[in-house]
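Record type: monomer structure entry
Structure origin: computed from sequence
Chain ID: A
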Amino acid sequence: MTEYNLDLVTGCNNNPLYLIVTDASYYPTDPPVAFNPTITITPPGFDEVVLPFVVNGTNVYGSDDLGITEAGCKQNIPDGIYCLEYTIEINELIPPTTISVKKTILRTANLQEKFNEAFLKLDLMQCDGELAKQTSVNLNTINFFIQGAIAAANNCADKEAMRLYDQANKMLHHLNKCGCGCQGTNYLVNFR
């Protein structure tokens, strides 16, 4: 049998509007002899959708492609666990064969965007030294939880991934709501 090794790469998914999936498969022929390449994507909280897939290419899917919004209407797609299955039919084999690969990923683009905004809002140079250190510790802890969530999802520990994701999200919400104490009345009374 001719050797096919299907694989997908979903790195660099920090754009909250799109899910980016690249074909990292090995095909024994160039161009590959693959018919009906499709990808089935199940976004968190939505039904699965079957979409066309470009072999040896990068595929970009928006909220309308994923059945989250109406056609032509793009919005941020949700973070969470996504199930992907890439399938091809190989007609050069007798009998013709269908092969596929499944991947589960944790998407964190929206959370990462919140983290980036929180990081850029905090003016660590304006803070008192101890507050700057505490804010830095908080940001590092949040980042640690985000990376832990991704690692857990990559190892099929979906519940742990979402627990860590939720903890990072709660910490970011609190940090964005309360800040570092370097502004407003607290800052004026205590640090000026």
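Annotation 1: The mean pLDDT is 84.
Annotation 2: The longest strand covers residues 80-90.
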